[in-house]
Structure prediction request, 319 residues.
Amino acid sequence: MNMSPNKASPTVVHEIGYELKVRDAMNRKIIKVSPETRMSELRPILRSNRIAGIPVMKSEQLVGVICVEDMVNWFTNGAQDCAIKEKMTTDVKILHADEPLVHAVNFLEQYGFFHFPVLDRQNGKLVGVITREDVIRSLLKKLEIDYREEEIRRYRASHIFEDIIADKSFLVFHYYVVGQDFDQAGNCSGRLKKTLRRLGIHPDIARRTAIATYEAEMNIVIYTRTGEIIVKVDTNQIRVEVEDSGPGIPDIERAMQPGYSTAPDWVRELGFGAGMGLNNIRKCADEMNITSTVGMGTRLEITIAIKKRRVSYEVKKSS
Prediction:
């Protein structure tokens, strides 16, 4: 099946957001209040700490969030003193420390909040708070580090294909992915991006490859027990082959639709399985082929041109 491409090149922010974790950007200094704290006490706490919101904790359990907007509404409605628990937001949007930072970026865009509590996935304890400023600061720091490392590592690897005497040559990189290991999710694509940059691959090409590979890697982590990623690089293109022994995809055409997901509830609660994986891969790839057999597994082939860009999408289903 041919599909029209929807090319919106991924930005540097998205690239770094896939590589970093929420824990890399969050503020570990936690200012908190109890549900019984009075609203009249809130203003000096916010002002002295220069923050826009505070987690509300009861016996080390997160029960709500109180923010400047809640305080403004309280003032507007007469400012009659009461316990914070009467004005706080109980439907709290949280992030986990081991989620990719891009989830925090998406949360900030989606909900319009300025801050989110960060919990430890294992014990559910509050371990930090992340704000828009924290995200920006961490992105700028990573950009600076990457720039310095790239300057230091400018060596002859960028001419490796010129130095090889052969009619045709290519490099092969092999990565193994373990299912359900969310803490290590993104490790393979992160290492691949660094490898491509050290080979002198253009940053835009390396970025698209890394993001497409990350999404494929996450599909293995979410839906299967194990899988492997093989990357072949030559002078003309980068070819990423992803194969797993998972349940297969019953309806590939439907799976390609943005927002469609078969991820179980527990995966969605972890912040993954939003149904954008294959769609994001399609945006990054010049060619994308999927072959899936229900009950046996899925094979995904992604091609990104280095010199000459071709545009083609093909979906196959094996019965």
